[in-house]
Amino acid sequence: MVIPHRIYNPVPAPDLVERGSEAGVAIDCLYTRHSDGFVRQTALRRVLASTDHPWTVPFVLQLLGEYVIEICDDIELFAETQLATRPGWATQFRSFADENPDFIVLTRQRATSYWECYYRGPHLYRVTYPGLRALALLVDGPSD
User: Fold this and answer.
1) pTM of the model
2) So what's the pLDDT on residue 4?
3) What does each C-alpha distance from 104 to 91, 108, 113 come to in angstroms?
């Protein structure tokens, strides 16, 4: 699977496809790659609220290696509050990480770079940066 870096299409009309349907989730996954961060965040929220489709995992994880901290905050909140109640998805995140270690390493490096350049002030320690914290919760599991 190749995830597009960015798409520039207009946002589709809300009645184009049924929200939550498999086709709707697929469209939302594509729009997590939109050039507008607000569009990406809205699409992500719908993906996180959807059924646990294994093919959504890379679209969620990809966002953790990007610069919009509000999106990382949303994923961190999901990982902290909802992942435990969705064991199927928790397994899918970990399986994807096991099968794609290079992707995880690159995503972690990108998140670290954004933390270092832009977010070190509010997040003195790397482990508190939402992108890295969410990544750890999703692919490494909760720490006890």
Assistant:
1) 0.93
2) 82
3) 15, 6, 14
